[in-house]
């Protein structure tokens, strides 16, 4: 039974409540109420800036893994397992409790990697995730090395800040998304119902560094109730950066779908795949009208050259701000 809204849960025991908190986290410390003399000692810390150089270094590692393993990081191929091992080793070194969940798809073993930050109320879990597998055609650096690398660096930032959040934070790197959302569906379908009911929201990050980027926030329309709050929390950092966003109806095209089917509020960010950037979008976002957001979508050219660093940086910072808001840093 959900008795509290996401932000109410995040704000429990701290000074800030509701939309005020989302705004203050997107602003410099000078306007943060936690910095006023009346603030409690355990003040809310602002989300850190996520260093884009670190995110790109993870992408370089994923590219090397693909190059050394037949050019891809696909389900059932050695490049997938090596990708899991890379992410897991860094999380373990940073103090996460990691779990490898295996499943079978197409006659091959696949893996989901789960990482929990071992502090905060385990009855109020915020999840953030994305798929770690590529298609067989290429290394999958934008799809979805980008989301995978950003999630890893946000997780490492939680550790660097030694965060003691109000809520529990759990990350997921899903296997076999490209075979039909297999890993995330397996995870949700095999969660005991008591564990499922503890998840207050799921945030999905699949393709967030597209070379001709749009700035899309998953629309809450038609999604479980509570999703509108996630839509707002994910849009707020872009508003603070002065970057306009559009809502996108994501339907069932990524790993949020299984969570939504289970009635869990969902949200996410996306910079575009095979769709074409309009001239109105090129006016407000830059880039090239009449061209795909990602011309290398599901192709061999989805390499480290297929990344817009500005888009990846903005999205990484937005993930951190949303996560800090929702867990009550
Ligand atoms: N999930 C798709 C893939 O990995 C990409 C994609 C297309 C997508 N449309 C989307 C992801 C909308 C998130 C939202 O190939
Ligand atoms: Ca940054
Ligand atoms: Zn993808």
From TrEMBL:
Which CDD domains did the record assign? Answer: M28_SGAP_like
GO molecular function annotation:
aminopeptidase activity; metal ion binding; metalloexopeptidase activity
**Coiled-coil regions listed:** none
- Keywords assigned by UniProt, alphabetized: Hydrolase, Metal-binding, Protease, Signal, Zinc
Protein's UniProt keywords contain Protease: yes
What range(s) does the Peptidase M28 domain occupy?
Answer: 112-322
- Report the domain of life of the source organism: Bacteria
Gene3D superfamilies from the UniProt entry = Zn peptidases
What the entry lists under SUPFAM superfamilies is as follows: Zn-dependent exopeptidases
Q: Where is the signal peptide?
A: 1-22
Official protein name in the record: Peptidase M28
Species this chain originates from: Actinophytocola xanthii
Taxonomic lineage: Bacteria, Bacillati, Actinomycetota, Actinomycetes, Pseudonocardiales
């Amino acid at each position: 039974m959900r008795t509290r809204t996401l932000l109410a849960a995040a704000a429990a025991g701290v000074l800030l409540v509701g939309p005020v908190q989302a705004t203050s986290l997107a602003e410099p410390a000078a306007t943060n109420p936690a910095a006023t003399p009346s603030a409690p000692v355990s003040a809310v810390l602002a989300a850190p800036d996520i260093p884009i150089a670190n995110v790109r270094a993870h992408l370089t590692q994923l590219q090397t893994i693909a190059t050394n393993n037949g050019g891809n990081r696909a389900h059932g191929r050695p490049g997938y397992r090596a990708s899991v091992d890379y992410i897991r080793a860094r999380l373990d070194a940073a103090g996460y409790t990691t779990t490898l969940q295996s499943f079978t798809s197409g006659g091959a073993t696949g893996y989901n990697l789960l990482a929990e930050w071992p502090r905060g109320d385990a009855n109020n879990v915020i999840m953030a995730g994305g798929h770690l597998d590529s298609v067989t055609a290429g290394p999958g650096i934008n799809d979805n090395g980008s989301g995978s690398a950003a999630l890893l660096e946000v997780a490492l930032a939680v550790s660097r800040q030694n965060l003691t959040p109000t809520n529990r934070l759990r990350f997921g790197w899903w296997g076999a998304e490209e075979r039909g959302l297999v890993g995330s569906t397996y995870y949700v379908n095999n969660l005991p119902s008591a564990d499922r009911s503890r998840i207050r929201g799921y945030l999905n990050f699949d393709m967030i560094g597209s070379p001709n980027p749009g700035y899309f926030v998953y629309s809450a329309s038609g999604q479980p109730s509570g999703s509108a709050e996630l839509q707002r929390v994910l849009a707020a950092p872009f508003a603070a950066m002065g970057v306009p966003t559009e809502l996108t109806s994501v339907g069932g095209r990524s790993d949020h779908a299984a969570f939504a089917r289970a009635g869990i509020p969902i949200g996410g960010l996306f910079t575009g795949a095979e769709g074409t950037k309009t001239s109105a979008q090129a006016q407000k976002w830059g880039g090239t009208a009449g061209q795909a957001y990602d011309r290398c979508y599901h192709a061999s050219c989805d390499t480290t050259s297929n990344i817009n660093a500005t888009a990846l940086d903005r999205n990484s910072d937005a993930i951190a701000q949303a996560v800090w808001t929702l867990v009550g840093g």
